[in-house]
Design brief:
The structure is a homodimer of 102-residue chains. Chain A has a single domain, classed as Winged helix-like DNA-binding domain superfamily/Winged helix DNA-binding domain (Arc Repressor Mutant, subunit A), CATH 1.10.10. Chain A has six helices and three strands. Chain A is globular and about 50 Å long. Chain A has helices at residues 8-18, 22-29, 36-42, 47-59, 81-84, 87-100, and strands at residues 34-35, 63-68, 74-79.
Amino acid sequence: MNSPALCTKVEKGMKIISQRWTSLIIYQLLNGPHRFCEIEAALPISGRVLSERFKELEQEGIVNREVFPETPVRIAYSLTEKGRALEPIMREIEKWSHTWID
Amino acid sequence: MNSPALCTKVEKGMKIISQRWTSLIIYQLLNGPHRFCEIEAALPISGRVLSERFKELEQEGIVNREVFPETPVRIAYSLTEKGRALEPIMREIEKWSHTWID
């Protein structure tokens, strides 16, 4: 059977979501806004890599970065509308994992 | 807000799906069994990497490899039940990509 040509939108979507750690970061943010250190503590990921991922997710319009001018300065990350629209994907991954992963 | 501890099953599920090219390979196989060369032609991926991915997906019980003793020998890959159960995830990624990717 021949494959239909892959839609470039789907290819790009999969590339974004498949970026290492991205789905786990989004999954954490589904619970609400988080500070950098909270995500860093929740995932086995270095601060440098987490910072890169957040930059990419901001550039993609998936994550919002908000700076609160307190002392010390507080920075919170949250999902944009585009980011929250990823929730059904995450819920399906959750279901599949609970059913099929030992 | 604190993050709830991440479920290890969900973490493992996300790791499998997030492996580079894996979701695109599974997406192609949703259309039915394919030969190695068909997937290789459909994706911008080297034969070496595709071969690695297929081995991992076989080990995870997501893909079946069937050898037909023809001349030349024919090898076809298809999704197992565990692999086909990934379809709702792929469909949600498809929907999200069509809505949110320019």
